[in-house]
Design a protein that fits this description.
Elements lengths: L4 E2 L22 E5 L4 E5 L5 E5 H6 L26 E7 L2 E6 L4 E5 H6 L4 H14 L9 E3 H6 L1 H14 L1 E5 L7 H6 L13 E4 L15 E4 L9 E11 L4 E2 L2 E5 H11 L1 H9 L1 E7 L4 E7 L1 E3 L5 E4 L16 H15 L6 E3 L5 E6 L3 E5 L2 E2 L6 E9 H15 L1 H4 L4
Parallel strand pairs: 1-2, 8-9
Antiparallel strand pairs: 2-3, 3-4, 5-6, 6-7, 9-20, 10-23, 11-21, 12-20, 12-23, 13-22, 14-19, 14-21, 15-16, 17-18
The structure holds fe (ii) ion and zinc ion.
The site of fe (ii) ion has 4 residues, from loops.
């Protein structure tokens, strides 16, 4: 294979194009810079990315640095100080970089592109992630139970719709107990919680949770007192008798609300990223506590999570100077979340199962009145967030490899 051509070029790093164009490694240009402390590679889409010698050495994919299970054998803190690159060349679809500690670092070109950390690559990933989500969700995508059960394509369709819209309803679900767990298990075994593997949402005497009464429920996420709160919630409607007045469900996209708050009132947004709220479940049988901010941003200030569950919040434990600002910001965020113009409302019907991302789509229901034998019965369960994302990435690499890099 001919070596990559070396280029004395400056790179324009401001472009934010999708990074899906692949090219043979030997068609690409490399340029050693900073006295060998880094190399620039110009990809086929013209994006120019810097890779540091220390990064290339620490993440080397050769057989002595990584074993067959992809576990690291050579560790980042073993890299010598001031390591320099001596050469950059191409062998087939791999880049090879020799370093002055006598090693040859091997990197598949596709992997280098996937994990590039140039400004334009990162902006492109963020842009892609935001565009992929339909916000706020204004309709519920519907799928048939049979399509889900048919094969892997059905599972991928469900997960893709969930990741995009945050909510999916299945029709034609058999009226049998534990069907909800059967649906969940297409992705992963259910996440057991203090409520068991599956649970019935039905009005009963002395309820341990307002959900088990006919009272209304405000918009919330479930189980934020867990370190790993459920990623997906499933509600199979077993019964919802016609005569029942009220009991309609409504949903709000917390990510869309957070983006609106960030735009309208960045000072409130900032307070909610910084001050930790207390989420708890404290009663006769349970005492769970987890402190986390309502809005989580990453090291670039990009929104990565929302935590919102007013009925399950314990007393605020914040710095004195933050308390008043926190409650003002809280009110502003609640206003965005509860804005009627952005809510999704519908009445669940028997033989359907509504599934939604518990960490993005807030759920609620209106109070209802049932007389005599009338009943509203839902059976629910959860899928662990980690299980959902693990499966989503595996499916993405199979069915949509060009978008996988957006989910790190
Ligand atoms: Fe809930
Ligand atoms: Zn190596």
């Amino acid at each position: 294979m001919p070596p990559a051509s070396l280029l004395n070029a400056t790179c324009d790093t401001e472009t934010a194009q999708p990074r899906s164009k692949r090219a043979r490694a030997d068609e690409l240009e490399t340029h050693l810079g900073q006295n060998g402390r880094s190399v620039k590679i110009r990809w086929a889409d013209e994006d120019c990315c810097t890779y540091h010698a220390v990064w290339l050495r620490a993440n080397c994919m050769c057989h002595s640095c990584h074993d067959a299970s992809q576990q690291r054998l050579y560790l980042p803190h073993h890299v010598p100080d001031n390591l320099k690159l001596l050469t950059a060349s191409v062998r087939g679809d791999n880049f090879e970089f020799t370093t002055d500690d006598g090693h040859t670092c091997v990197h598949p070109a596709s992997r280098l592109q996937e994990f590039s950390y140039s400004e334009s690559s990162i902006v492109s990933r963020i842009t892609h992630r935001r565009k992929f989500m339909t916000m706020p969700v204004s309709r519920v995508p519907v799928m048939s139970y049979d399509e889900l059960m048919e094969g892997e394509r059905g599972i991928w369709k469900w997960m893709n719709l969930l990741q995009r819209h945050g909510i999916v309803t299945f029709t034609g679900v058999p009226d049998e107990a534990h069907q909800v767990a059967r649906i969940a298990s297409r992705i992963a075994p259910v996440q057991p919680t203090i409520y068991g593997d599956t649970w019935d949402v039905v009005a009963k005497a002395n309820p341990e949770n307002i959900a088990y009464s006919p009272l209304g429920l405000v918009l919330h996420m479930d189980l934020l007192a867990y370190e790993s709160a459920p990623g997906v919630q499933l509600l199979h409607c077993r019964r919802f008798d016609d005569g029942i007045i009220g009991g309609g469900s409504f949903f709000s996209d917390s990510f869309a609300a957070a983006y609106r708050l960030q735009e309208k009132a960045p000072h409130h947004f900032e307070v909610l990223t910084r001050v930790h709220a207390t989420f708890h479940k404290h009663n006769e049988d349970q005492h769970m506590v987890y402190r986390r901010p309502h809005i989580v941003i990453d090291d670039r200030g990009e929104l990565v999570a929302v935590n919102w569950s007013p009925p399950f919040e314990g007393p605020l434990q914040a710095k004195e100077e933050d308390v008043e600002a926190y409650y003002q910001a809280y009110k502003a965020f609640a206003k965005e979340i509860e804005d009627e113009r952005h809510l999704l409302r519908f009445r669940m019907s028997p033989n359907t199962c509504t599934t939604f991302l518990n960490r993005r789509i807030l759920h609620a229901r209106d109070e209802y009145k049932a007389v005599g034998e009338q009943q509203r019965v839902l059976e629910g369960c959860y899928i662990l967030q980690d299980d959902f994302l693990n499966r989503f990435r595996k499916f993405s690499s199979k069915y949509a490899p060009d978008t996988l890099w957006a989910y790190y």
